[in-house]
Amino acid sequence: MGVYTRDMTDESTASAWFRDVTPSDADAARDAIDDGGAADPADWPARAVASGFAADEAAYYDRLHEATVTATRAAVRERERADDQQLIHCIRAMDDAERTANELAERVAEWAGALFDDADTGVAGARSVAERDAETAAERRAVSLAERVVDMADEADDLRAYIERAAPAVTPNLCRMAGPVLAARLIALAGGLDTLAKKPSGTVQVLGAEDALFAHLSGRAPSPKHGVIYTHDYVRNTRPADRGSAARALAGKLTIAARIDHYAGDLRPSLHEELDDRIATIRARADQ
Amino acid sequence: MTLPEGVSRRRVDDRERLATRGEPVYGEPTDGPWRLWDAGRSKLGAMLELGLDTGLTGGEGVLYLGAASGTTVSHVADFAGPTYAVEFAPRPARDLVDVAASRPNLFPLLKDARRPETYAHVVESDLDVLIQDVATRGQARVAARNRRFLASDGRLLAAIKARSEDVTREPTAVFEDVLATLRDRYEILATARLDRYHDDHLAVVARPLAE
User: Fold this and answer.
1) 8 Å CB contact between B28 and B14
2) Which of A109, B44, B52, B177 shows the smallest number of beta carbons within 10 Å?
3) How far is B100 from chain A (nearest CA, A)?
4) What phi-psi label fits residue A59: left (phi over 0), alpha (psi between -120 and 50 degrees) or beta?
5) Is the pLDDT reported for residue A117 higher than 90?
6) By CA distance, what is B86's nearest residue in A?
7) Would you call B90 and A62 a contact, using CB atoms and an 8 Å cutoff?
8) Given an 8 Å threshold on Cβ–Cβ distance, is B90 in contact with A16?
9) Strand B150-161 relative to strand B201-208: parallel, antiparallel, unpaired?
10) What's the pLDDT band for A11 if we cut at 50, 70, 90?
11) How far is A20 from chain B (nearest CA, A)?
């Protein structure tokens, strides 16, 4: 390669993804595609050929294909493996497992009611059916189904236990304030801790109440006071007249908690004391 | 209106359906080497099905924004030339990578379409077609920012989703606003509602204005 070509190369490929990449170096290609950038595109295939990165445009496209597939696959895996994404899978799996166990438990109750005298409903009922000794072929099937329900309910419990163990490391302030399950639920509804941290408190207040919110926005209903944060003691056990205030106060602090967890990560006890004080003030209205 | 080279109508189950030639990716029905392109799952498919003049002839260089799992972009790569597919969400991008792995002219990128400067070092200039199907607020701004990749005689093919801009407003009013913003950087050549296949979506064919 002559001196002239080299000078031209330095100028025209300054921001190209292949600039510091040797064709066989997959890691370098990945870093360049992930972290690089340019104000404007250019005729990269022609410049890659001119700079000697590829023999011709067909060879360039082959390298580009290999590099983008490898880089994007790795980037996807890295993003999907992030701890908050694991919590999202886990809370959704827990909800699915609980719902499925309950649904099948009703089926077991229907069936067992026809076979046995004292069959109870729900997962508890399925547990007692699962312990029975089956005598006929039909009973064997009903008992077997009940065993599956028990397994599914146990799996839901294990998933909950995992969330309770894992969530505080991912989001300490949010967990301290909302409990691990509600914290995971909020992260799942937002799509991730980073997106939750970027949401305004008014949005966090009604996360999970999207149907009611859209009914309100199209003028068909009053504005929802709370979404999933309803399950929090500070909302649920505040008298109805003050629930909107409590939900607003809680959402405000949850939003701050999510931001601290995402951007800093340390536990801030003062934040939790502020919320406790505020809720005490709101609840004191009931005594006036 | 003629279909691009590489796209054909095949009679399957007594209905004329669009099809392209390539490796099946999402369990779509096939007819010999042809795999059906379901207009109900693809806004670009719906545009072709409705006879919109997309200007596509086959073999183009394409930048596809909002590739999602790669359903539509897999068909595009079957008839187009170099096809850059941008998707921001990791979960659908996982499927997109699998779709791209068997298509040498399809280049998947995990990038935010609102920030073209994060992929302008990979995506080439002077492309023939910019296809946009992003469910984000500010769809006209996304098209404006990505104009830099288009050749001066290139085409923007956009599916504008009214609900992404504002769920509460009348789609017609939303579309008017989006088109007004688009006109800063593009000349609108044709529009069509896609409601037969996709609720509250407007297809837009446009040409970049000279800078």
Assistant:
1) no
2) B177
3) 7
4) alpha
5) no
6) A72
7) no
8) no
9) antiparallel
10) low
11) 12
Mean pLDDT for chain A overall: 91
Domain spans of chain B, in order of start: 39-208
Closest CA to A45 of A7, A6, A17, A73: A17
Mutate to test the interface with A, among B103, B110, B146 (most CBs of A within 10 A): B110
Partner-chain residue, chosen from A15, A65, A217, that has the shortest CB–CB distance to B104: A65
The answer to whether B85 and B107 are in contact (CB under 8 A) is yes
Q: Which of A36, A45, A73 sits opposite B124 (nearest CB)?
A: A45
Walk me through the domains of chain A, giving residue ranges and CATH numbers: 3-81 (no CATH), 83-169 (1.10.287), 171-288 (1.10.246.90)
Does residue A91 contact residue A188 with C-beta atoms inside 8 Å? yes
Note the pTM of the prediction, 2 decimals. 0.74
Contact A16 B96 (CB under 8 A): no
Q: How confident is the model at residue A274 (pLDDT cuts 50, 70, 90)?
A: very high
CB–CB contact B97 A40 (8 Å): no
Per the structure block, which two tokens stand in for B117? 């400067």
- CATH number for region B39-208: 3.40.50.150
Write down the pLDDT at residue A8: 45
For residue A222, pLDDT over 70 is answered with yes
CB atoms B106 and A65 under 8 Å: yes
ipTM associated with this complex = 0.94
